[in-house]
Design brief:
Elements (H helix, E strand, L loop, with lengths): L6 E7 L3 E8 L2 E8 L5 H16 L5 E6 L2 H7 L6 E6 L5 H4 L24 E4 L2 E2 L5 E3 L3 H13 L4 E5 L8 H10 L6 E3 H4 L5 H31 L4 E5 L4 E4 H6 L7 H17 L4 E6 L4 E7 L2 E2 L1 E2 L2 E3 L2 E3 L3 E2 L2 E3 L5 E5 L5 E7 L17 H7 L15 H19 L5 H23 L11 E5 L7 H7 L4 E4 L6 H6 L3 E9 L7 H17 L9 E10 L6 E4 L4 H13 L8 E12 L14 E2 L4 E7 L2 E9 L7 E4 L2 E4 L4 E4 L3 E5 L5 E5 L3
Parallel strand pairs: 1-4, 4-11, 5-6, 5-9, 9-10, 12-25, 13-23, 23-24, 29-32, 31-33
Antiparallel strand pairs: 1-2, 2-3, 7-8, 11-12, 13-14, 14-15, 14-20, 16-19, 17-18, 21-22, 24-36, 25-28, 26-27, 26-28, 30-31, 32-35, 33-34, 35-36
Length: 667
């Protein structure tokens, strides 16, 4: 591994602001710059320049980036013109999907259109059997003709997914060599996801191909700009919580779909370990969306069964649930007269009305109208209160017309917050209660620029007694980017085949380790984690457990925990073997201080709307709070990137790590 750089910068691109954390000489500082949706790299370069100006000259600079380019391209369907090459007879794999309906009682479900148009789907006369034997050999003239057709149809990227290529990849390798002459990105299924389940494998490789051209252009441009600004290495956070080189991210963009939110979970895992916080339900509310997850036993759950924008993605991803409810979510009255909030967002441009450019009512505008937000970015970003009030007034008029009764400005704003919080509460229930976990056992870790305004209300709704607001909550995900490990995940399906587990694991370790050393990581520092996907014979889905002498017993225990039963007399199948290669990145230590338990001194006062009306509250400057300080509601705690609302039935204390730890006084 390279020597520790003198400066490390984490940059998380968001819908409204781009968060920057710069670590130098064992300390870190955070700030925000407005996002530039037209060219996200512009905000990143500005953030790098400000970071370097803040710390002075640096001998070496590394940047870890959490990107939304792939996510947005998939959500907005603005990827490349992609072709899919499959085994003849399986051309319709993306449109056939799975038999199961996503909504059991909805007979009119319209699934999203496949990423690949029908005219760009090609079947190739070849066939490999499940045991890897060749049933029908590949004909070179057919491959040459297919290459000519891809060029003639204007394909900008190619996804190759042949039947059972994970058992014998020779045919896919031949196509990879031939298509390399086309000068466009080629995504190969046996390299990206050598696992069975044809639909999920084809969908994943199609997503990768769909995103590859746009991601490659973006990262090439950003790498060049970053180098000109003095950056030595640019790395990207993967959806699994591991760091990869920019070149790997450009080649495999499907692994970056949850790049930004993953940083928040990495930071949360570290906080649990160092501050001994126990289980956490994470609540990351930004400008465009809210991301929630469960961290139990100090580790976030990873899944290979994610669905993003209606499309299955089977590479390892942190199990994060996202809802379109953020500070910029737009409020409106629908055709039935009901108040709706999100998923449409005002984004960074024009942004909420209080930013001075837009005129649509948003969650942020509602908080401004109710006195809960008084300033942004320490006052550096001016709030247009009058514009926010005008936007909410127009919404109140629409609500009154729909209901036939007068609606005040405050009632309209409060309604916006209640609807937004209901959306977020459903998301929190999904990752906890609906998965058999009692959220009362955990604390709610609130971060993101808007999280602190809603954390206590959501914790109360779930009967959680503790809320934790970390240091620099508005840039917490960017902090996590500096805490991630260098990671490479590889796997192989072994179901239905004779195999030597130790030999397969050794091959996977060699492959994953070589990937990290190719990115400049010292081989002596690379470690490996082995796991396997097991299931009872006859089942359709499997459970991942660590691969060791206790694997079988661990599977029975986990099956019992998830489903309420297990059967130790029933035969168990090994479906996949997996290896994660990793090496720790240089970490910036969290500062720990001690202090006496003293009541905090309020900086000023304000009037904030609660259910009982406008209430006088104390206002605290978080920068002035010290370890041991306590405060009681009603109050607000202001800081550079966020505001925390403290209701009357909550008290907060500053712990030795600077976290605001809140406790609910009553049920």
């Amino acid at each position: 591994m390279d020597p520790e750089p003198s400066v490390r910068i984490g940059i998380d691109t968001g819908g409204t602001f781009t968060d920057v954390v710069v670590g130098s000489r064992g300390h870190f500082q955070a700030f925000k710059v407005p996002s530039t949706p037209g060219d996200p790299s512009a905000a990143i370069v500005e953030g790098i320049a400000r970071a370097l100006a803040a710390v002075g000259e640096a001998a070496e600079v590394d940047v870890v980036h959490g990107t939304t380019v792939g996510t947005n391209a998939l959500l907005e369907r603005k990827g490349a013109r992609t072709a899919l090459v499959s085994t003849a007879g399986f051309e319709d794999v993306l449109s056939t999907r799975r038999q199961a309906r996503p909504e059991l009682y909805n007979l009119d479900v319209v699934p999203p259109a496949p990423l690949v148009a029908p005219e760009l789907t090609f079947g190739l006369a070849e066939r490999v059997a499940s045991d890897g034997s060749v049933v029908r050999a590949l004909v070179q003239s057919d491959v040459d003709e297919l290459a000519r057709m891809l060029r003639a149809f204007g394909a900008e990227s190619v996804a190759v997914c042949l039947l059972f290529s994970f058992a014998n990849p020779d045919h896919e390798r031949a196509l990879e060599d031939r298509f390399a002459t086309l000068g466009i990105p080629v995504s190969i299924s046996h390299r990206l996801l050598p696992e069975y389940r044809e639909y999920e494998r084809a969908s994943t490789v199609a997503v990768n191909a769909y995103l590859a051209p746009r991601m490659r252009v973006y990262l090439d441009r950003l790498t060049a700009k970053a180098a000109a600004a003095g950056v030595g290495k640019l790395r990207v956070m993967q959806s699994s919580g591991g760091i990869a080189s920019a070149a790997t991210a450009a080649r495999e963009p499907v692994r970056t779909i949850l790049s930004g939110p993953a940083g928040g979970l990495v930071a949360a895992e570290r906080l649990i370990t160092e501050a001994n916080l126990g289980d956490l339900v994470t609540f990351d509310m930004g400008g465009t969306s809210t991301d929630v997850a469960l961290i139990a036993d100090a580790r976030a759950r990873t899944t290979n069964e994610a669905v993003v924008a209606g499309v299955p993605v089977a590479v390892p991803m942190l199990d994060i649930h996202t809802v379109g409810s953020g500070g910029g979510s737009i409020a409106r009255v629908d055709d039935g007269g009901a108040l709706r909030v999100g998923p449409e967002s005002a984004g960074a441009d024009p942004g909420p009305s209080c930013y001075g450019r837009g005129d649509l009512p948003t969650v942020t505008d509602a908080n401004v109208v109710l006195g809960r937000i008084r300033r942004l970015l320490g006052g550096a970003f001016e709030i247009d209160v009058g514009r926010a009030r005008a936007a909410i007034d127009r919404l109140a008029t629409e609500m009154a017309e729909a209901s036939g009764a007068p609606v005040t400005r405050e009632a309209a704003a409060a309604g916006v917050l209640r609807v937004a919080e209901a959306n977020m509460e459903r998301a929190l229930r999904l990752v906890s209660i609906e998965r058999g976990y009692d959220p009362r056992r955990a604390s709610l870790l609130s971060f993101g620029g808007a999280g602190g305004l809603h954390a206590c209300a959501l914790a109360g709704a779930l009967r959680m007694r503790r809320v934790v607001v970390p240091v620099h909550p508005g840039a917490f995900s960017a902090l996590g980017l500096l805490s991630g490990r260098f990671v490479r995940d590889v796997s192989r399906t072994v179901l239905g085949r004779d195999f030597d587990p130790e030999a397969v694991m050794a091959e996977l370790e060699s492959e994953s380790g070589a990937s990290l050393t190719a990115e400049g990581i010292d081989a002596a520092l690379i470690q490996f984690e082995r796991s396997a996907s097991l299931r009872y014979s006859g089942q359709s889905f499997e459970i991942d457990v660590p691969w060791d002498a206790d694997s079988l017993e661990a599977f029975h225990r986990e099956h019992g925990r998830r489903y309420g039963h297990s059967d130790r007399d029933r035969s168990v199948e090994t479906v996949h073997l997996r290896v994660r290669a990793f090496a720790a990145a240089p970490a910036i230590p969290l500062a720990m201080v001690t202090g006496k338990r003293l009541a905090a001194v309020a900086d000023s006062s304000a009037r904030v709307w609660f259910e009982e009306g406008m209430v006088a509250v104390k206002v605290y400057d978080r920068a002035a709070l010290e370890a041991g300080n306590t405060l009681s509601g009603p109050a607000i705690v202001e800081e550079y990137g966020s505001t925390t609302l403290v209701p009357a039935d909550w008290t907060f204390e500053v712990d030795p790590f600077g976290n605001l730890v809140g406790s609910r006084i009553t049920e």
